[in-house]
């Protein structure tokens, strides 16, 4: 087996659940709607965010996705997306100012930070939930069926497939360095990592050539064959309508975007 | 339809000018199973890639009734199924099912026919249960079997396998061998695994530095330790050719 981490690949929950069995397009549309509602909501209308989170929780529960599985993925993304919010109270002036040691915290900055954090969290949880209940290949099929640019879908398809192969190769190279006593202590020792990156690039390039030959050998003539057609069913329509009915009236009642 | 291979005076140089094949002659008849043996760098893989039209050398070559340089290359690739050495090169789609469907879809087949062929090819390699799985979730042995299925789904008449038993543990190797033995295709297989050659093939061709240096019944070639040693080949210590069921 290649060294992929189960925490970062595949789906979670009950594969036979109504959520898992939805057409990927329905999930993409429904969950993108959740994100759009969340990002257009101003801080004053914060109950809309609570509704978004409640809806995501309901989807997770229906798919029997354990919170721990969501956390395992979200913990890699959340620190990155929340990083932007952390600095806002200090750099965005406006409103009342409070001294915090040598720094000054601004009221407007705090509010913006709270809004950015809420939106980023909802966006991240939505993406994680889509991945956990759909699986990357199905998301790609959904995007292809929704007429996303085929070249981008093809690139993403290969990236997903070879991410695991390249990660396993990198893991072996790192093990080979460690096995010969490589333990970097200062920047001067980083040279080996540079050579590892070079070797990895060359190997990946060579693999690309071999994969292309393997594609030609099976009749590839310049365009990827289309995947099996997807079929929207009543459950898919119900899901999208339910998401819209749950969130759009709330969002409209909350007023203009802030 | 002929599935024979007719190669006369085939020469090929790597892009750096080094010769890979030198005036090679090889003729393979319908239904034959031929092991192509030789040390690393002998030109085995280069030869395999010529059979599918991936490489073009100089000389006369006709495979499965088609001249790769002049004939219908798409039809050639349908007739000649090439299984690469590293299944991670061969399995490039996100799921087993999509990968096995890749060839038939490129052939322009109807969706229902593609599904039928995918099911049939996966059943032939005993991997029907893994259709929805991702290649990276499979063991090396399973990946190799799926790689064979990806070409079986194109219903080739000639099967070309490049080092099929490389990196397999004994059990996975045995399972693959059993699957290959049941196939009725004309098979050309390159390998360092001489016991596999003995079990699977009735004929062996030894390549050295891009030339054919021996060609004959597999057992006779494998029973000639001097010939093997001259070309950096060796049967495992204690291996008894007489214990292998004759093909």
Quickly describe the structure.
The complex is a heterodimer of chains A (258) and B (247). By secondary structure, chain A is mainly alpha-helical.
Task: Walk me through the topology.
The complex is a heterodimer of chains A (258) and B (247).
Chain A (H helix, E strand, L loop, with lengths): L17 H4 L2 H16 L7 H16 L4 H25 L5 E4 L2 E4 H28 L1 H10 L4 H30 L11 H27 L16 H20 L5
Antiparallel strand pairs in A: 1-2
Helix pairs in contact in A: 2-3, 2-5, 2-9, 3-5, 3-9, 4-5, 6-7, 7-8
Chain B lengths: L4 E9 L5 E10 L4 E5 L6 H8 L6 E6 L9 H7 E4 L3 H4 L5 H11 L4 H14 L15 H13 L5 E5 L7 H13 L3 E5 L3 H7 L2 E6 L2 E7 H5 L2 H6 L17
Parallel strand pairs in B: 3-7, 3-8, 5-6, 6-7
Antiparallel strand pairs in B: 1-2, 1-4, 8-9
Helix pairs in contact in B: 4-5, 4-6, 5-6, 6-7
Let me know the CATH homologous superfamily of chain B.
P-loop containing nucleotide triphosphate hydrolases
DSSP helical segment count of chain A: 9
Percent helix range of chain B = 25-40%
Q: Approximately how much helix is present in the residues of chain A? A: 55-70%
- Indicate the mean pLDDT of chain A: 85
Element pattern of chain A in H and E: HHHHEEHHHHH
Task: Give the overall form of chain A.
Answer: flat
Radius of gyration of chain B: 18 Å
Gap from first CA to last CA of chain A? 50 Å
Record the strand order, biggest sheet of chain A: 1-2
- Average pLDDT, all residues of chain B: 92
**What percentage of the residues of chain A does DSSP assign to strands (E)?**
under 5%
Under the CATH scheme, which architecture of chain B would be assigned?
3-Layer(aba) Sandwich
Low-confidence stretches of chain B: none
CATH class of chain B: Alpha Beta
SSE arrangement of chain B, N to C:
EEEHEHEHHHHEHEHEEHH
Largest β sheet strand count, sense and barrel closure of chain A? 2 strands, antiparallel
Determine the strand fraction of chain B and express it as a percent band: 15-25%
Q: Please give the count of helices of chain B.
A: 10
The total number of structural domains of chain B is 1
Derived from helix and strand composition plus strand pairing, the structural class of chain A reads: mainly alpha
